[in-house]
Amino acid sequence: MFAIIGIVLAASLSVIALAHLLPVLVAVSTGNNEQAIVFAMTGLLTAFIAGALGFATGGQKHRPVVAERLTALSIVWLIVPGFAAIAFVGVDPKALYVDAYFDAVSALTTTGSVSLINEMSSAPAVMIWRATLQWIGGYATLLMSMLVLAQLGLAGLSLRRAPIPPGDTSGPFGRYWPAMLALGLVYGSVTLAGVIGLLVGGMALVPAIGLAFSAAATGGLMPNGGTLVASVSVFSGIVVATLLLLGATNYLRHAGLVRRSPRTYWGDPEFRYMVLGITVGGIVLAGLVAITSGASLPLINAIMWVLSLLSTSAFAVDEAGFGSIPLLVALTVVFVGGSTMSTAGGLKLMRIAILMKQGSREIARLSHPHGIVHTDFGGRSFTMPLMRGVWTMFVLMLVFALLAALALTVLGVPFEHAITASIGALTNAGPVLGFATGGDGLPIGIGTSEVYASMPATAKLVLSLAMVAGRVELLAFVGVVTAFTTQDS
């Protein structure tokens, strides 16, 4: 058990250590040598610890069982942010480590919540560090979904499972290397294309890198903290929308890990549901806003809002959207989420579709109790055990959101903020808190950082746990907790 945790942790920390180079370069280029030294030193410290772990666990040939894989994943998602947070404290010595840890967990899980809001924490190097962590977290999410969770068939993921290309079978994860490289190439290519597109759209290099990193990972980080409409050109907005759509789409369609041609994207039910949901949802949302509030939400902005929420990036499209879109609508959309095997959070479109198909089957059986009703998803039939797994996942999401909200309320967080922040953390869509009402009776909008910063330290730890639970899939997280609590019984 400890060997596999050490191996995965050493590899993860090595990536984090190497990632410090980008904020070092940005700090030097902006003349902030003190921050460059901080990032360089924290990177070296992380690299040293990664090397020590790698040396201690090197040569291990043990093939991990299911419980060991899930445990390693959960522990790594909790420990790695602790090292990524060191740079935040180094840049701003007045910052509390709890706040830094919260921000690091939020970045690596692509949740997008921020609690450190002073001038030093808003420097270009710090912004690029957040964006880099989000990008790494997006890639880690794809690897975890495709190479671990899908292979276990967790809560319906067996319907989306694809064969892993053969590779070296030595070591704990040797056979995964070809798939990891193929996926990394596509993920990196999508991000690079996004950076180039944003540069063409008129953005400066550092903000373009930050926005492309965040959008590709569906992380919701705006480099300047504003809205998309106010901050970027129309062309850059199209680039961001494309990155969000690609990020929320099943990456098996991009990576060539299954035999597909571009025109068969439409053959993927989740992709069809997503495109239709964004288009029709945008039209309905614009009409709903006009009818209920009398306000005017431009159709293109409404469509972009639906894409932003469905991808769980929760990018702030415009200020008007926060006051026009009902909180319940925003929470429902992020709860649904994007496609399986994507960087998006939420329950996932596939599971929602399966729940609806099962409901339709039960209604059909009312008139024909003994009839055989065939149900499938994407041409693949699903069984009752699979159906029970999906229902379990759905119920766990609701229960965990309510428990987290209750915990936050007990800790002094207003109930509306508590339930919104809990769902936002669990679906990895932190900026959705902007739709909740602030102390002045108006929507919080883009000022969510102040609200997160004002929460007690314990509340931030609760939200951090919810972010990790949502990212590693609740069934896997509960399975790990159950294994730890029952291993001695």
In short:
The chain is 65% helix and 1% strand. It has helices at residues 2-19, 21-29, 33-57, 66-84, 86-91, 97-108, 124-149, 177-200, 205-216, 228-231, 234-247, 252-255, 269-292, 299-310, 319-324, 327-336, 349-367, 384-410, 415-426, 448-454, 457-471, 474-486, and strands spanning 376-377, 380-381.
Write the topology of this structure.
Blueprint: H1 2-19, H2 21-29, H3 33-57, H4 66-84, H5 86-91, H6 97-108, H7 124-149, H8 177-200, H9 205-216, H10 228-231, H11 234-247, H12 252-255, H13 269-292, H14 299-310, H15 319-324, H16 327-336, H17 349-367, E1 376-377, E2 380-381, H18 384-410, H19 415-426, H20 448-454, H21 457-471, H22 474-486
Antiparallel strand pairs: 1-2
Transmembrane segments: 37-58, 70-91, 136-159, 180-209, 229-252, 273-305, 325-347, 390-413, 461-484
InterPro entries: Cat_transpt
Protein name: Potassium uptake protein TrkH
